[in-house]
């Protein structure tokens, strides 16, 4: 992609109410993350993660919420596997808690942690559900952060060792492996804006973290593939990236440049090294006063750009940006504040377009998903794609034994229709995972926001399938959308 061509054309998606069918063999699933659902943060020797430390820091997480008890999945995983089975889903994407395996991120390996994920995978397979583990969904062992975290090159090598431990345990039963979830969040929200753990506000460190996360991915992928040589099960290894569509608010030079800059920081800083073996030159120019990319060593980009078997795409909303506030009403734009994740482009603002929003304040526009998928298929032809997260938070109300969340159902339908339109246009989209199976701990927002297609009462741990979950189960069973609900 050139720096001028920042978005793909938006094409018409399926007409509302029309029946659609997905291809035979399309993977249907739901997704979760270890720290968000497991709870039991001190059980059986589990070490503290950066999120445990972040939660314990006053003012960092809404209401002082922590990762306990979350959804108590550590003790209730069989109940949750039954939910996945009863919804008719063929796949379940979960993440493995590194501190539950290695409390210090290296050295000691906890048998109890191995046993938990061993039993989880067996339970999934017994229920006819394909396990899709993600090795890292943000819960870095605190001991590694004490040594520099993702700004320390050594963390990449420790991650590869941990990946080897998990593949040795599960590789006889697991085919689909994801290394990292959303490295943009880990790097820019964790090390630049500080709104996520570890809460650092060091722009240069965020760029170093990007590279070491990608290096960790490459080293882990190589470890898994090397261990699998000669085995009966060939692993399919990918990475999960929150690729999005960046749109200029107007066609002004300032807004076009803002879109180019944000596209580089949100998208191309990851896709270009992964798929083309280089960091974008325009990005490096944008951040030249912050970093000279001296953390890139000889051979790194070859490791990072080893062929991917798949890429997971997490999508929630497109983003409109402007290069200045000139001519904008203050009610129509967001300012990042003193500490921005937009390293080197802190002047860029996000513009609201007056569309309906989720409880997160994210504008709803499923054409952004179509754009995102079409752009990836155009820029990186032949790459198998999976939507590994897509969903919405709304303020749900429990009525008796039901949660009537029509807004979430409509969100899911509009995005499934966009996904289907992308497939019809030739995008190699192979599967869809709803986010999330369960209401859960929503990071710095604590338990205030609910994304689940299953409601969780955090006091009683009672699970209630929402209307959106029942609807999604029907879609899965039918292989598509039969018409208006």
UniProtKB/TrEMBL annotation:
Binding site for substrate: 36, 137, 181, 316, 435, 442-443
Keyword annotations: Carbohydrate metabolism, Cellulose degradation, Glycosidase, Hydrolase, Polysaccharide degradation
Record-listed E.C. numbers: 3.2.1.21
Gene3D superfamilies to which the protein is assigned, alphabetical: Glycosidases
InterPro entries documented for this protein: GH, GH_1_N_CS, Glyco_hydro_1, Glyco_hydro_1_AS, Glyco_hydro_1_beta-glucosidase
Transmembrane segments: none
PROSITE patterns the UniProt entry points to: GLYCOSYL_HYDROL_F1_1, GLYCOSYL_HYDROL_F1_2
GO CC, alphabetical: cytosol
One annotated GO molecular function: beta-glucosidase activity
Active site: 182 (proton donor), 389 (nucleophile)
GO terms for biological process, alphabetical: cellulose catabolic process
Enzymatic reactions: Hydrolysis of terminal, non-reducing beta-D-glucosyl residues with release of beta-D-glucose
Highest taxon, organism lineage: Bacteria
Family (UniProt): Belongs to the glycosyl hydrolase 1 family.
PANTHER family: GLYCOSYL HYDROLASE, LP05116P
NCBIfam families the UniProt entry points to: BGL (TIGR03356)
Protein name: Beta-glucosidase
């Amino acid at each position: 992609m050139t720096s001028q061509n920042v978005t793909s054309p938006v094409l018409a998606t399926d007409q509302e109410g029309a029946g659609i069918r997905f291809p035979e063999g399309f993977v249907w699933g739901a997704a979760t993350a270890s720290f968000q659902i497991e709870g039991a943060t001190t059980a059986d020797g589990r070490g503290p993660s950066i999120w445990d430390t972040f939660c314990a820091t006053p003012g960092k997480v809404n209401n002082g919420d922590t990762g306990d008890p979350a959804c108590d999945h550590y003790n209730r995983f069989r109940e949750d596997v039954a939910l996945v089975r009863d919804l008719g889903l063929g796949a379940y994407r979960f993440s493995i808690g590194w501190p539950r395996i290695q409390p210090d991120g290296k050295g000691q390996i906890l048998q109890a942690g191995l046993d938990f994920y061993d039993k989880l995978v067996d339970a999934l397979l017994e229920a006819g559900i394909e396990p899709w583990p993600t090795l890292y969904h943000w819960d870095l062992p605190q001991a590694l952060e004490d040594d520099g975290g993702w700004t320390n090159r050594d963390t990449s090598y420790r991650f590869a060792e941990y990946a080897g431990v998990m593949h040795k345990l599960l590789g006889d039963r697991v085919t689909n492996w994801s290394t990292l979830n959303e490295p943009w969040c880990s790097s820019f929200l964790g090390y630049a804006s500080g709104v996520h753990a570890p809460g650092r506000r060091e722009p240069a460190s965020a760029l170093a973290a990007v590279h070491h996360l990608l290096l960790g991915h490459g080293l882990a992928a190589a470890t898994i593939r090397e261990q699998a040589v000669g085995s009966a099960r060939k692993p399919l290894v990918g990475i999960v990236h929150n690729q999005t569509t960046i749109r200029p608010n107007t066609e002004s030079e300032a807004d076009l440049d803002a879109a180019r800059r944000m596209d580089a920081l949100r998208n191309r800083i990851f896709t270009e090294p992964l798929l083309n073996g280089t960091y974008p030159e325009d990005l490096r120019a944008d951040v030249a006063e912050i970093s000279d990319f001296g953390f890139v060593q000889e051979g790194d980009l070859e490791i990072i750009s080893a062929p991917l078997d798949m890429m997971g795409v997490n999508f929630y909303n497109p983003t409109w940006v402007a290069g200045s506030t000139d001519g904008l009403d203050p009610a129509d734009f967001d300012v990042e504040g003193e500490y921005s994740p937009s390293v080197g482009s802190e002047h860029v603002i996000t513009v609201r377009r007056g569309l309906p929003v989720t409880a997160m304040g994210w504008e709803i526009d499923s054409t952004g998903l179509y754009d995102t998928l079409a752009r990836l298929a155009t820029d990186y032809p032949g790459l198998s794609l999976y939507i590994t997260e897509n969903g919405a938070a709304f303020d749900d109300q429990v009525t008796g034994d039901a949660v009537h969340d029509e807004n979430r159902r409509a969100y899911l339908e509009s995005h499934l229709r966009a996904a289907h339109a992308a497939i019809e246009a030739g995008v190699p989209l192979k599967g869809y995972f709803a986010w999330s199976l369960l209401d859960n701990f929503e990071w710095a927002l604590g338990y205030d926001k609910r994304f689940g297609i299953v409601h969780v009462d955090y006091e009683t741990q009672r699970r209630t399938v929402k209307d959106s979950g029942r609807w999604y189960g029907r879609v899965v069973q039918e292989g598509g959308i039969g018409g208006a609900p």
